[in-house]
Amino acid sequence: MNANAPLAERLRPKTLADFVSQSHLVGPNGALIQHIKQGLIPSMVFWGPPGTGKTTLAHIIANESGRPFYTLSAINSGVKDIRDVIEKAKQSGGLFTTKNPILFIDEIHRFSKSQQDSLLQAVEKGWITLIGATTENPSFEVIPALLSRCQVYILNPFDKTNLELLLKRAVEQDEYLSEKQIKLKETSALLRLSGGDARKLLNSFELIVNAFTTETIEITDKAVLEKVQNNTVRYDKTGEQHYDIISAFIKSIRGSDPNAAVYWLARMIEGGEDVKFIARRLLILASEDIGNANPTALVIANSTFQAVSIIGYPESRIILSQCATYLACSPKSNAAYQAIGKAQQLVKETGDLSVPLEIRNAPTQLMKELGYGDHYKYAHNYEDNFAEQEFLPESIKNTRLYDPGSNAREKGQRDFLKSRWKDKYGY
């Protein structure tokens, strides 16, 4: 192979025996291994991060099953290209053979609905076996009709053992690197920078090796960090990473873990997430997950939103960190969130119930004559600013919707309500 080809391409495995990782799919008990051995390949979608072997595995499946192989990239292919390939596939495969051609589509999530629609008949009739590769959740990005005709297989990022094996192979087996005197003294920085992406690991490794001018090349963490200027965090602000990471962030705060909270916050900041988006989610969380257990949380979250809206990056990271750690360390309660949910459900079930006459407004003489506001007890005219009366419609009276939590502040609320309402609401 040409020396100008990237190391990841030069080391691309040609057989399952050489394929590293994804043992849950192609290991001894893998979900795909029997299909491949028998040559009965279903249409499928490979879903996983970059550099996890989606394209390589598709090529290997075609080779080991002895099938014609066609490939398209969703970036530069249209409906016409799809139809042309399907026509060629029909001619080379035929209708009465299990060796129908494989059509591999890279980044299938970039195909429009009409482009995906153009694949349906070919997959349905068995003219082709479709293998699509995507970094995005196929349940969002692949049309249901096509997805129902495919098996979805998840490819995971490479683990430490597999990444180290790839580095060892590169040093020992690559035609060009094997001629150099390379010593892998430390690999932690390389593995960390790869993020589980095998392609990134190998190409970064080659870049670092080529940066040495000495005859003996010692790979250490310090050398790696010196020669690799920065590491771009993989974060798609419109894709699944966007939703997964904000979910992890919110759940870490809800779970009272400030350490995890600031880690996921840092991931979003380094990925360039909109500062207002983060602050809005903190504002919602302060009410939904903390609420009356610590009402100050909402005040701080609101102040955070206002502050970061004015300041922006990079200083906003400090304010966001303060807010996130404060919320994580606050007592938690979703009582207010639960209360409005119950109330809305009750409204849907009971409809537009009449407001009790005694608490209706009476701005006109006619309304007063009709009894609007009669017998209303103005709370401030009574001892402790409280007078027992009915505020709910008759058919749902005594319904408890707000149930204070067990934290100190809400225990106080429960005691207050119990002292006022006795057994009416069962507090």
Outline the structure in words:
This protein has 427 residues and is of the alpha/beta class. The chain folds into four domains: 22-154, Rossmann fold, CATH 3.40.50; 160-227, Helicase, Ruva Protein, domain 3 (Orthogonal Bundle); 240-328, Zinc Finger, Delta Prime, domain 3 (Up-down Bundle); 354-421, Orthogonal Bundle (post-AAA+ oligomerization domain-like), CATH 1.10.3710. 50% of the residues lie in helices and 7% in strands. It contains 20 helices and seven strands. The protein has helices at residues 7-10, 23-26, 33-38, 54-65, 79-93, 113-125, 138-141, 144-147, 160-173, 188-194, 198-211, 221-227, 240-254, 258-270, 275-290, 296-311, 316-328, 335-350, 365-369, 408-421; strands at residues 44-47, 69-73, 102-106, 129-134, 151-154, 181-184, 216-219. The strands form two sheets. A five-stranded parallel β-sheet has the order 2-3-4-1-5, sandwiched between helices. Strands 6-7 form a two-stranded parallel ribbon. Helix 10 crosses helix 11 (198-211). The longest helix has 16 residues, at 275-290. The protein is elongated. The termini are far apart.
